[in-house]
TrEMBL record:
<dbReference type="GO" id="GO:0016740">
    <property type="term" value="F:transferase activity"/>
</dbReference>
<dbReference type="GO" id="GO:0005524">
    <property type="term" value="F:ATP binding"/>
</dbReference>
<comment type="function">
    <text>Required for the formation of a threonylcarbamoyl group on adenosine at position 37 (t(6)A37) in tRNAs that read codons beginning with adenine. Is involved in the transfer of the threonylcarbamoyl moiety of threonylcarbamoyl-AMP (TC-AMP) to the N6 group of A37, together with TsaD and TsaB. TsaE seems to play an indirect role in the t(6)A biosynthesis pathway, possibly in regulating the core enzymatic function of TsaD.</text>
</comment>
<dbReference type="InterPro" id="IPR003442">
    <property type="entry name" value="T6A_TsaE"/>
</dbReference>
<keyword id="KW-0067">ATP-binding</keyword>
<protein>
    <recommendedName>
        <fullName>tRNA threonylcarbamoyladenosine biosynthesis protein TsaE</fullName>
    </recommendedName>
</protein>
<comment type="similarity">
    <text>Belongs to the TsaE family.</text>
</comment>
<keyword id="KW-0460">Magnesium</keyword>
<keyword id="KW-0547">Nucleotide-binding</keyword>
<dbReference type="InterPro" id="IPR027417">
    <property type="entry name" value="P-loop_NTPase"/>
</dbReference>
<keyword id="KW-0819">tRNA processing</keyword>
<dbReference type="GO" id="GO:0002949">
    <property type="term" value="P:tRNA threonylcarbamoyladenosine modification"/>
</dbReference>
<keyword id="KW-0963">Cytoplasm</keyword>
<dbReference type="GO" id="GO:0005737">
    <property type="term" value="C:cytoplasm"/>
</dbReference>
<dbReference type="GO" id="GO:0046872">
    <property type="term" value="F:metal ion binding"/>
</dbReference>
<keyword id="KW-0479">Metal-binding</keyword>
<keyword id="KW-0808">Transferase</keyword>
Length: 178
């Protein structure tokens, strides 16, 4: 457990359910000191994911999106290796544990949400992780988990998760640090 447990020095977490905004979800902010910790955080997140979940990763090149996705794949128990899907738009990793597959999308070269839609991803039966997906998934699913990764000067990362839609509002424990 050591590797998974030590990384996320929780800075601050708040639940934001503004009145009248049914889509408001939970926000979680953590500091991630190194690549191992990013992987570990992904493992925990992956264990919590289920079929129908849509996760969007934002952050500059080298932020750790693929590192996080590799962890998510391990947490889900899918067949690897999860690598940068740069030359394929989407790669499906089947489950080794009778769970949902991981569909790993690189939206970097997609010009529009319509092109993402054209991939005909099986959203309902998969856990879908989209790198560079900000602005690309609008309307694709009722609930979205956004993960924004910022790189700091000291090479640590600051990660902010924001879940919107009923999935993340109703199941806030998914995002709670353990
Ligand atoms: N705190 C950290 N979190 C994530 N990755 C880190 C961290 N510190 C250094 N790294 C390194 O940064 C690189 C991130 O690469 P990658 O996950 O492919 O990023 P992206 O997919 O966002 O382009 C890896 O080489 C990883 O080892
Ligand atoms: Mg990447």
């Amino acid at each position: 457990m050591g590797r998974l447990g030590r990384h996320d020095r929780l800075r601050d977490r708040h639940t934001d359910r503004a009145a009248g905004d049914a889509g408001a979800g939970v926000t979680l902010r953590i500091d991630v000191p190194d690549a191992d910790a990013m992987h570990g955080f992904g493992v925990r997140l992956g264990r919590a994911l289920r079929a129908g979940d849509l996760v969007v990763l934002t952050g500059p090149l080298g932020a750790g999106k693929t590192t996080l996705t590799r962890g998510i794949g391990e947490g889900l128990g899918v067949r690897g290796p999860v690598s940068s899907p740069t030359f394929v738009l989407a790669r499906t990793h089947p489950s080794l544990v009778d769970g949902p597959p991981l569909v790993h999308v690189d939206a970097y070269r997609l010009g529009s949400p319509a092109e993402l839609d054209d991939l005909d991803l099986d959203l309902e039966r998969s856990a879908v992780v989209v790198e560079w997906g900000a602005g690309m998934v609008d309307g694709m699913a009722e609930s979205v988990l956004e993960v924004r990764i910022d790189r700091r000067d000291d090479d640590t990362r600051h990660v902010e998760l924001e879940g919107t839609g009923p999935r993340w509002v109703d199941d806030q424990q998914v995002l709670a640090p353990r």
